[in-house]
Design a protein that fits this description.
Chain lengths: 109, 117
């Protein structure tokens, strides 16, 4: 079952912060985050495993609340290079990674 | 060297035709996937193969037939193409197996943009 992402779109100026949320109605083993730039393939950012851990990748970090089946991606002091569509991937039992509908992030100078 | 490579990058064809997309990975991974991304950017799993064996078939029309001659290759053949098949098709691979046992990241190919006229 497809996870739900919010918001659908975010518009930022350089240096601003953003949060992208992902929630699932099914139990999750883990959550993946990917970023896709226009005309390119999705690129892996990070995996959040059970245990409520947080991970970081440069100024991008994420958390996973397994009780609520929710994950959030935090983009701090955004840069132009952060622009793209962010997908969360739900790692559920018995299937391959199922992606949310994506959140389009636009960062301008 | 490209890790996951797909050919062709662009495919323009008429309704009713049959076409194939090829995918190869040189990462030594055991599992390969086909994802379809529609015009609204929705990335949907179609098939997954593990060591040449079909693992996942996500209610895809029978017109779509994947084939894995060996674990490094996964091809997608589409019969009687329809307008709704227009999309970007991504091949991907992961090291050992299908979620959730592995929690491994996916490595995507650059995609094949299929346009059915």
């Amino acid at each position: 079952q497809q996870p739900v992402q919010s918001p659908q779109a975010v518009i930022l100026r350089e240096g601003e912060d953003a949060v992208i949320n992902c929630s699932s109605s099914k139990a999750l083993y883990s959550v993946h985050w990917y970023r896709q730039k226009h005309g390119e393939a999705p690129v892996f950012l990070m995996i959040l495993l059970k245990g409520g851990e947080q991970k970081g990748h440069d100024k991008i970090s994420a958390s996973f609340n397994e009780k609520k089946q929710q994950s959030s991606l935090y983009l701090t002091a955004s840069q132009l290079s952060y622009s793209g569509t962010y997908f969360c991937g739900a790692n559920q039992a018995g299937t391959a990674l199922i992606f949310g509908k994506g959140t389009t992030l636009s960062v301008s100078s | 060297d490209t890790a996951v490579s797909q050919t062709p990058k662009y495919l323009v064809t008429q309704m009713g035709n049959d076409k194939s997309i090829k995918c190869e990975q040189n990462l030594g991974h055991d599992t390969m996937y086909w994802y379809k991304q529609d015009s609204k950017k929705f990335l949907k799993i179609m098939f997954s193969y593990n060591n040449k064996e079909l693992i996942i078939n996500e209610t895809v029309p029978n017109r779509f037939s994947p084939k894995s001659p060996d674990k490094a290759h996964l091809n997608l053949h589409i019969n009687s193409l329809e307008l709704g098949d227009s999309a970007v098709y991504f091949c991907a691979s992961s090291p050992t197996g299908v979620a959730p046992t592995t929690n491994e990241k996916l490595f995507f190919g650059s995609g094949t943009q299929l346009s059915v006229l």
